[in-house]
Amino acid sequence: MSLTAQIAKHIRDIHFGGNWTVSNLKDTLADVNWQQATTKVHSFNTIATLVFHTNYFVGVVLKVLQGELLNGSDKLSFNHPQIECEEDWQQMLNKCWTEAEAFAVLVEQLPEQQLWEDFSDSKYGNYYRNIHGIIEHSHYHLGQIVLIKKILQQEAES
Question: Degrees (nearest 5) of the Cα angle 45, 151, 80?
Fold first, then answer.
C-alpha cells in the first residue's frame, strides 16, 4: 500500500471506522439526535459545533486538493448554520461523510512526492503536515464528542 493510500485509510478510519482506537465519528454520532447535538454541556462546545468545526477544516484542505486557493479562517470554523430539526442535523452529518470520503479519495490520488511540497504557502508547512493535522484534529475532537455524549446520556438517566 502506498503512503498516500495509507494516509487516506487513516482519514476513512477516523470517520467511518477501522482504526486501532476502535472509535470513529460515524458510529459515535449514529445515535445522537439533533436535540442532543445542540445541547450545551457546561462551557463546552456542542456536539454539532464540534462536528462542524472538525469538518470545516476537512473542507478547507479538500478545496486545496481540488485545485482551489487556501481559504479558511479559524474564527469561521465554529460558525455553523442553525440546527432546528433532525433534518438539519442529518444534512450536517451527510456533508461531513461526503467531504471526508472526497478528501480521502484525493489524498489517495496524490503523488507521494507532493506530500513533501509546500501546502499552498511555505508558512503552512507541507501537504503531509496539513493532512495529518486534519487526522489529529479529528481524533482530538472525537474524544470531546465522546465525553459530551456520555455526559448527556448520564444526565438523561438521572
Answer: 25
We report the CATH number of the domain holding residue 121 as 1.20.120.450
Task: Return the biggest CA–CA distance within the chain.
Answer: 55
Number of domains, the chain: 1
Tens-place pLDDT, residues 28-47: 999 999 999 999 999 999 99
pTM of the model: 0.95
145 within 8 A of 25, measured Cβ to Cβ: yes
Q: Where are the extended beta strands (E) located within the chain?
A: none
Under a CB-based contact definition with an 8 Å cutoff, are residues 138 and 77 in contact? no
Q: Residue 53 is part of which domain span?
A: 3-157
d(CA 70, CA 26) in angstroms, rounded, equals 27
Smallest Cα–Cα separation from 61: which of 77, 49, 83? 77
Q: How confident is the model at residue 114 (pLDDT cuts 50, 70, 90)?
A: very high
CA–CA gap between residue 39 and residue 10 (Å, rounded):
30
Q: Which residue has the cell 477501522?
A: 18
pLDDT of residue 22: 86
